[in-house]
Design goal:
The protein is an alpha/beta fold. 35% of the residues lie in helices and 21% in strands. Helix 1 packs parallel to helix 11, helix 3 runs parallel beside helix 9 and helix 8 crosses helix 14.
């Protein structure tokens, strides 16, 4: 069993893709014996605490940061012991098992000590799956996870299935397992979650794409990040399903390397694929069984527009067909779905200028998709915490569509270096209000001001939601 990155990560993960976690004693843990320590008191941590308590464990929660009032109140109501702004080793290292927040890296000192002494360290998703027999539809990828997860959930719910939504979106998976009784779960799964999942098996696994992201957590090695993403197929059998993009170069190489044993359904907008999904002219065809195809017009049947959303819709459509949902239900759901906040969200039109909030674009590939979908000249607001970004893939789109770049971040040097030959104007700003006002003055009637940062937000904002909300507030003040 491999838990943490090292130089042999790629080879070892490949060898262990279909092996179970043997660290710790998960079988005794299922009986509600022992001490479970939860590191991180956010949505996933408090949910895990709730489930662990319900299953009879001695539970302790520790957060090295400040615990938000809502989560502190939840722990107090449950009479669960916790600490804030510290990790007391004497209260942690005696755990029979540790459930950690995905945001805590394997290099954190407390994690290193736990691993060194042989303590099992797992994710909330891994822990919660032990206590539910529900079917899991698990969606991962560098981009499009949230949109595809929400669309899939929307389709299943409209079809009358008893379904929950969790993972990197919505309420904690563990809390729902403790309190609800769903037959299906749609789970948005990040690479950080996958790193701490071992016995978990996805009944339906979806891999949307693999592009460089979070490389700072993976020794700046793409092969490590790819191996992490491919854990989505670990433990799958021939009775399970794996859905992936046949147009994504890294995904194709990964599939060839890791050789999934599940039923495979690819999707493509460049070539005909059966079984799977493909685009022909303006029509999507989805075929998972002979003579049971679903066709949809990308112009009249899909609420989500843009090339990236054709991919997302194909992935969700394959899931729906695998679950044998009615074509009419799938079409209706695809047509009335509303996208998530902060993802190509139209904020306002002021003086003929469209303002678009794509704050959730925290990597280069997301910004590529956003620019690719633009039909007007763009004033692009970008910048933040650079995660080892390679901006080369944006250069052609920036040359053809972007008239000015407004940098929003503390350190904008790499953006200047990347695009100084491609756009005439690059301006530095240090607040959402300043960036919005300058972008407004640089744009003219018929242009679009697009916030699509390609970077994390933590230098100036709490998170991408905070960044997007501040941008929207600034737009309304214009």
């Amino acid at each position: 069993m491999i838990k943490y990155l090292d130089t042999n990560y790629l080879i070892l993960i490949k060898m262990n893709t279909n092996q179970n976690n043997t660290s710790g004693n998960p079988q005794s843990a299922m009986a509600g014996q022992g001490r479970v320590v939860i590191l991180g008191a956010g949505e996933s941590g408090v949910g895990a605490a709730k489930l662990a308590q319900a299953k009879g464990f001695d539970v302790f929660v520790s957060d090295f940061g400040v615990i938000a009032d809502q989560y502190k109140s939840a722990l107090e109501k449950l009479n669960i012991a916790f600490e804030s702004e510290k990790h007391t080793e004497g209260l942690i290292l005696n755990a029979s098992e540790v459930i950690k927040s995905p945001g805590i890296p394997s290099t954190a000192p407390i994690i290193k000590k736990l691993v060194a002494q042989g303590t099992s360290v797992i994710s909330e998703i891994e822990f919660a799956k032990r206590y539910t027999s529900a079917k899991t539809i698990c969606i991962t990828g560098s981009n499009g996870k949230s949109t595809t997860s929400l669309l899939t959930y929307h389709i299943l719910k409209n079809a009358g299935l008893n379904v929950g939504l969790a993972g990197n979106i919505g309420h904690s998976f563990a809390a729902q397992v403790a309190e609800e009784n769903y037959d299906y779960y749609v789970l948005e799964i990040s690479s950080f979650m996958l790193d701490d999942m071992f016995e978990f098996k996805a009944d339906i696994a979806v891999l949307l794409n693999i592009t460089p992201d979070h490389l700072d957590r993976y020794e700046y090695k793409m092969e490590n990040y790819v191996a992490s993403k491919m854990r989505i197929i670990q433990n799958q059998t021939a009775d399970d399903v794996f859905i992936h993009c046949a147009d994504d170069e890294e995904s194709i190489k990964a599939v060839q390397l890791f050789k999934p044993v599940a039923q495979v359904f690819p999707f493509s907008i460049t070539k005909k694929i059966e079984p799977g999904a493909y685009l022909d002219a303006q029509t999507i065809t989805i075929l998972t069984e002979p003579n049971k195809e679903l066709t949809m017009s990308i112009l009249s049947d899909l609420a989500l527009q843009g090339k990236h959303n054709i991919y997302n819709s194909m992935a969700s459509g394959i899931v729906a067909k695998v679950l044998e949902l009615r074509n009419e239900t799938i079409r209706e759901s695809m047509g009335n779905f509303k996208n998530i906040e902060h993802r190509l969200e139209h904020v306002a039109k002021i003086s003929g200028i469209d303002f678009i909030n794509d704050s959730k674009a925290t990597n280069v590939n997301s910004t590529w998709y956003a620019l690719e979908s633009m039909t007007a000249d763009v004033v692009l607001i970008m910048g933040g915490v650079d995660k080892g970004n390679d901006y080369n893939m944006l250069k052609d789109l920036v040359k053809s569509k972007v008239k000015a770049i407004v940098c929003l971040g503390k350190d904008n040097k790499r953006i200047h270096d990347a695009f100084e030959d491609d756009v005439e104007i690059i301006v530095n700003t240090f607040s959402a209000d300043e960036a919005t006002q300058i972008a407004f003055h640089l744009a003219k009637r018929g242009d679009a001001v697009l916030l699509s940062p390609a970077c994390a937000s933590f230098d100036l904002f709490k998170n991408y939601e905070d960044r997007g909300n501040q941008f929207k507030a600034a737009v309304k003040e214009l």
